[in-house]
Amino acid sequence: MTSMLTSVNGCKFCDIVKNKKELQLKDKNTCVVINDIKPKAKHHFLVVSKQHISKPTDLTVADVPLLEEMERTGRELLREQLKREGEADTVEDMLRIGFHLPPLLSVHHLHMHIIYPISDMGLISRKLTFRPGKVFKPARELIDQLKEDAGVPDPLEGNPAKDDLHDKIPAQAIS
Ligand SMILES: [Zn+2]
Ligand SMILES: [Zn+2]
Questions:
Q1: Alpha helices in 6-163 (DSSP H)
Q2: Looking at the CA of 111, which ligand is closest?
Q3: CB atoms < 10 A from the CB of 33, how many?
Q4: Strand locations in the chain (E)
């Protein structure tokens, strides 16, 4: 488990979690959602952990439930906004969910980016700053990696459908 420290003085996101209820689009047990101040697409939120966790590389398998609640919360808000605008349900291919990795990390308090639709993103965002890979880690990959590092058995082991999953499109092809 990550540090038990819940709040850090001078941390912008701890301040939002504790004091800026008016900025919180959703408030759950472990996280809140706010708008990104520099949106890269029509919908761009940050799901911020309530606990002060400096960076995604500090996470362990014990934090997987936190990451799952963060993802669920972000998706829920996106669905609600799309519905309100009379748009169709979320198109998975148009959605990017993940974390910046050091050194591209600007605020050192765990925040998950939810960006939709990715076709709105400019060239630099698409090709560089939010491109899945070295600087931006998709949430799913992070969760799988934490489980794998901890030796959690793969629930699909022995499932004949598993091989189909190996045909994933390389990340580069998406951005
Ligand atoms: Zn903080
Ligand atoms: Zn970021």
A1: 12-19, 64-84, 123-124, 139-149
A2: 2
A3: 23
A4: 26-27, 31-35, 43-49, 96-100, 111-116, 136-138
CATH C-level class of 12-152: alpha beta
Which ligand is located closest to the Cα atom of residue 53? 1
User: Cα(63)–Cα(55) distance, rounded to whole angstroms?
Assistant: 12
Taking all residues of the chain, what is their mean pLDDT, rounded to a whole number?
88
- CA 24 from centroid of its chain's CA atoms: 16
Q: Is 128 left (phi over 0), alpha (psi -120 to 50) or beta?
A: alpha
Per-residue pLDDT for 164 more than 70? Answer: no
- DSSP-derived letter for residue 151 is T
Exactly one of 52, 100, 109, 111 is catalytic; name it.
111
Q: Summarize pLDDT for 37-77 with one digit per residue, the tens.
A: 999 999 999 999 999 999 999 999 999 999 999 999 999 99
108 belongs to the catalytic site: no
Rounded distance, CA 121 to CA 129, Å?
A: 11
Task: Give domain limits for the chain.
Answer: 12-152
Q: pLDDT (tens digit, 9 = 90+) per residue, 68-124? A: 999 999 999 999 999 999 988 899 999 999 999 987 777 899 999 999 999 999 999
